[in-house]
């Protein structure tokens, strides 16, 4: 069984998230999503619209996701890979080359997937604040 792990906040779940999770799931047999906790987001200067438990519930409802675990800090990635026997860490292409992930190549494969054009949580929040509709 090939286990795939990805990380994210997955706030305001949208079709870009779904497509990323679908492609990540297609890389293996079991998809683990490490979901940023509210406390971890706060430490990064971010605040989610939905609290952790709601974001977790939404991810768990998706057929592509087998397990959701909390992401509490940057430093947990190596232990996640080892503890969950992960074969592939999969991240959005905007993280390519980041030292936050590149060191994991010592423990597993690392795959970067391009983001879906035309959608991001930041863009959704901006459009909502401007009263705009989905495109």
UniProtKB/TrEMBL annotation:
Keywords assigned: Nucleotidyltransferase, Transferase
SUPFAM superfamilies: Nucleotidylyl transferase (SSF52374)
One term under GO cellular component: cytoplasm
Chain segments annotated as coiled-coil in the UniProt record: none
Principal EC category: transferase
Superkingdom as given in the UniProt entry: Bacteria
GO molecular function: glycerol-3-phosphate cytidylyltransferase activity; metal ion binding
Domain Cytidyltransferase-like: 5-127
Catalytic activity, EC: 2.7.7.39
One GO BP annotation of this record: teichoic acid biosynthetic process
Entry-linked NCBIfam families: cyt_tran_rel, g3p_cytidyltrns
Protein name stated in the entry: Glycerol-3-phosphate cytidylyltransferase
Encoding gene per record: tagD
